[in-house]
Amino acid sequence: MNPMGRSQIRILIVEDDNTAGQALGEAIRRAGYTVDIIRDPKEVDRQIKLHEYHIAIIDALLPITNGVEVGQQIHKSTHGATKILFMSGIFKDKVFIKDALTKVPALGFLTKPLDLDEVLSIIDQQTKDFLPDAKPPLQDLFLAESISNQLKVEAVNASEYIHGFELPWIYSLFVNSNMSGSLTLTPLEGSPWVVTFNNGRIVQIENNDAQSFFGQLLIENGYLSKSELDKFLNEESSQLLGQRLVEANAISSHITKVIQTEQLNIRLSQSLQEDQFKAQFISEDTHVAEDDAHINNQQISNILNDLIQSKVSYDWLKNYFTPWLEHCLEPAENFSGLENLTQLDLMQKFSKIAKIVNGKTSLNTILSVNSDQEEFLMKAVYLMLVERVCKFSDKKASRVSDKARITRLQKILKDIENQNYFEILGVTRRSPLNVINKSYHDLAKILHPDRLKKTAHPQVIELTDQIFTKITEAYTTLKHTGKRELYIKELDIGRSEAVFQAEALMDMGRKSLEARRYDEALKIFDDLIKSSHPPTDSLIYYIWAKLKAGLSVAGRKQEIEELTRMINKIPAEDRHSAPYFYAKGLLFISIENYDRALRCMENALAINPHFLPAKRDELRIKRVRESKAEKMSAKTLFMDMDLSTIFGGSGKDKKKKAK
């Protein structure tokens, strides 16, 4: 069957009420279909001889004859090729409806007032085999052999909305080009982000609400003390902080550039929000000096690795990749760069991934073989796609075994059962109705039970029914403003309770650390990071508690790898606290990298000079480096530690001080 566009698909509406007919016709036309409307049922016979209709929507109550008879006429004349859909605002009796559906093998019988989304969903389902498997403009680029600059701009500007987690793809597209211009990202709420490109380099990122880290980074890197920085901040001046510091010879212009580049990295991370954006790229000349702070295509791989690892959620990726499960991965134009990519954190576990980027292995198969590492593998695949190391083949896998399909459907069902309605549809709380509708229809194209062959395995049919019931339940709630607002209130009540409980657990965990009950603290923070709303700092304290409780001898290497992955999942904008640097320092101590551990302790103390754990470890690390004879081990360093003063000291200590 040759695919056609929606405009080539004709829908016939037989409705004597002109207002109702025009309203229905306009809604279907807006979806891209061609529509003919007939008010006089006598015209039906002539019309179906003139055109081939895919679906006829017929009012059951028509003048002279009833709609059921018209449906019988069309069904007979077209030999069943034109599908029938009845509607009525009068005939709502179940006996009448059952009788109508017995006389004519119709798609259904809808009662007025019509739910237009339901009508469009039925039309989409019945015409899907005539349409190409259309993807959103940005996702469509995953199929492209090569992507011209014009195509990049068109795909971004043609996207009605983009999700914040698609930004790594957009940033990669423009950095790997020679284009100059501005990318404006307007969220549904809040101030827009404006990212300026110069010859493919990111040179500026502006947002009125974004926090500045310039001063904080100067302190962390040891260029200024907090008191020195405060002196400049307290001075009244219209100049930027960096300019004032350079003019006062407090820092060099080179240091300014280094810090500004770090801040660009943080701003990129801050822009990745779980929100919908309107995106527009305007090509224009941007005049900047060659040596100004920037991010270029040599730096972008590390940054994308960090963004995807720390910001892009697993739940979003599962939804995003659902339409691609049966597609195969094949080499793209940057495939030769895969070896360098495998050195990055996300890729290290999948050094042999090149063997399956062969145009023969589907994403579903790849994920099924590595089901225990699915989150990291999905992120690795996303990184390869945005770096154009691989692309999706436009051909789907020739055959997927029943076993693989059942395993994947079981995984999808398990995930959906643990997700809220927004997560199920892959939308945000602020997503407009058209985005919700589109997400639902896109999922329906993949997971609707009607897509299954009659010979499908019974378990495949059962699982698909269960999954789509959950999807429909989510859609039915979110498409109605009233139900959606009520559902959000219910979520907020649950979230408030969860946040309150999490804060209480955080306090208990800190007290357990203070009392040196490390195993107890570890259990508390383990529960926290597995909760639905873990506090931002919970990962930091988990790493801290884990290292204090001690690593196992047999699984030490794997545990250190896991802790490293955890600390890399902390977003760039949240890596600027004394506890963060302290936990990272402990991690370096665990692998006996004392130089980097010392640097982390110094960073922690630069942020908080009174942070005693870092002071103590700083001294201990220096003793290890300076005294070869002592040979103090990493275990001694972080186990022989008095934490009583970390959170203000224990009661016993306070009594001693009082004396």
Describe this structure as you would to a colleague.
This protein has 659 residues and is of the alpha/beta class. The protein has five domains: 6-130, 3-Layer(aba) Sandwich (Rossmann fold), CATH 3.40.50; 137-306, no CATH class; 313-397, no CATH class; 401-479, DnaJ domain (Helix Hairpins), CATH 1.10.287; 498-657, Serine Threonine Protein Phosphatase 5, Tetratricopeptide repeat (Alpha Horseshoe), CATH 1.25.40. The chain is 52% helix and 10% strand. It has 30 helices and twelve strands. It has a five-stranded parallel β-sheet with strand order 2-1-3-4-5, sandwiched between helices. A five-stranded antiparallel β-sheet has the order 6-10-7-8-9. β4 (83-88), α4 (94-103) and β5 form a beta-alpha-beta unit. α22 (481-514) packs antiparallel against α23, α24 (538-549) runs parallel beside α26 (578-590) and α26 (578-590) runs antiparallel to α27 (594-607). It starts with 9 loop residues before the first strand and ends with a helix. The relative contact order is 0.06.
